[in-house]
Automatic annotation (TrEMBL):
Keyword terms of this UniProt record: Methyltransferase, Transferase
Originating organism: Neomesorhizobium albiziae
One of the GO biological process terms: methylation
SUPFAM superfamilies cross-referenced by the UniProt entry: Aminomethyltransferase beta-barrel domain, Folate-binding domain
Protein name: Aminomethyltransferase
């Protein structure tokens, strides 16, 4: 096609991208972005599933204490969400995931995981049973092609609804009081892992008593068109209850204290693993309790049960308590200070537990049957020079802290 002079002129008038724009990463705004931007003081952002999300908003230390002493709001809209519905929805979810979905009653949610045919974990997440034939699956990674392939032969529909549904996590001791004062009638009846719908602005909001902090808390899901009005409703009711918005750094500290793991942080999901020795079975990352060997066939069943029978599992995920107060993040773990046996994936000095804690993946039998004489290698910055520290570590149960208010029924009115 010939290019005329007029076309050249019109092309020259089109806006051009600056050279640096070639390297820009465009990030989706959250449905709550106007409210979050208005509160952001640190300009500390990261990318979560393609969305712009805050690592911190005003002070990461105080944001952590907002979780443990007040009511903290964390935007979970970027969390990947799938709507699964149809006559075979229960059978499909039961085939897909490790736990027995027939035991999951409408109005309940459970923590679960799913594997490939070799028994390697693809992801973990929460499965909400909204009604007898409707579910919501929430997770870290996107799995639509896998879910659609797995749905062949089932009378079921699977749709991603990440961009259609906004979500907030409301966590902390005053979270119940905030919801009560916001007018969510009978919210005190929700027990841990219960779900219920409540009216909001001519629509409805789904509230579950769930969270990622090990504290009293709730998660709220609403159509994106009602997102900002839900935010305003919570913050108006929470003014006298210390409600504050937080970023991921504070949430991450709380989840480590709760002993909870994050996909592609504490373990590599099967679809992201480049090397075969990075793949993990559920029992190798602390998810063996989910495997229901009594139910019918599910993805990975044969491989998981065979590994148990053959005792061929090579790794174990453990909680560690480490001497001193310097976090051992990404430290190498040793046996007798000589043999490398694993790596720390997450570590903090626990402000609530008042101890140095970590989550680590170790090579069996270390951390399994051999738990004595374990050490971690920490490099601490002292006066602009790294100092190598070898600190003793011991295997301890998770969660590292256990708060009674998380499971109290009815929830306490702080």
């Amino acid at each position: 096609m010939a290019i005329t002079a007029s076309k050249i002129k019109s092309l020259s008038l089109q806006p051009r991208f600056a050279a640096q724009d070639h390297f820009r990463m465009l990030r989706l705004p959250s449905p709550f972005q106007p409210r979050i931007d208005a509160l952001a003081r640190t300009e500390d952002w990261y990318t979560w599933a393609g969305y712009k999300a805050p690592l911190s908003l005003w002070d990461e230390e105080l944001e952590y204490f907002a979780i443990r002493s007040q009511a903290a709001v964390f935007d979970i809209s970027p969390m990947v969400k799938y709507h699964i519905a149809g006559p075979d929805a229960e059978a499909f979810c039961n085939r897909l995931t490790l736990r027995d979905v027939t035991r999951l009653k409408p109005g309940r949610v459970h923590y679960t995981a799913w594997c490939d045919d070799a028994g390697h974990v693809l992801d973990d997440g929460t499965l909400f049973r909204l009604s007898p034939d409707r579910f919501r699956l929430c997770c870290q990674e996107r799995h639509l092609p896998w879910l659609l392939d797995s749905a062949i032969g089932f009378n079921v529909s699977v749709e991603e609804e990440t961009e259609a549904v906004a979500g907030l996590a409301l966590q902390g001791p005053t979270s119940f009081a905030v919801l009560r004062d916001a007018g969510f009638k009978d919210i005190e009846k929700l027990k841990v892992f219960d779900i219920a719908e409540f009216p909001h602005e001519g629509g409805s909001v789904t509230i579950s008593r769930t969270g990622f902090t090990g504290d009293l808390g709730y998660e709220l899901f609403v159509p994106v068109g009602l997102a900002l009005s839900l935010w305003d409703r919570l913050f108006e009711a929470g003014r006298l209850h210390g409600i504050r918005a937080i970023g991921y750094t504070a949430l991450n500290r709380a989840r480590i204290e709760a002993g909870l793991i994050v996909a592609n942080a504490d373990f590599v999901t099967a679809e992201h693993a480049i090397r075969t020795d990075r793949l993990r079975l559920p029992d190798e990352i602390g998810l063996g309790f989910m495997v229901d060997a009594e139910k019918g066939y599910f993805n990975g069943r044969r491989a998981i049960l065979a590994a148990r029978a053959n005792r061929s599992m090579k790794h174990v995920l453990v909680g560690l308590e480490i001497e001193g107060n310097i976090p051992a993040e990404h430290a190498i773990v040793y046996h007798r200070q000589k043999k490398e046996i694993g790596l720390v994936s997450a570590a903090i000095w626990s402000p609530t537990g008042k101890r140095n804690i970590a989550i680590a993946s170790l090579s069996r039998p270390y951390g399994d049957t051999v738990v004595d004489d374990l050490w971690v290698e920490i490099y601490a910055m002292r006066e602009l020079k790294y100092e190598r520290l070898m600190k003793r570590a011991k295997v301890v149960p998770r969660p590292f802290i256990k708060l009674e208010r998380r499971t109290a029924n009815p929830p306490a009115d702080f």
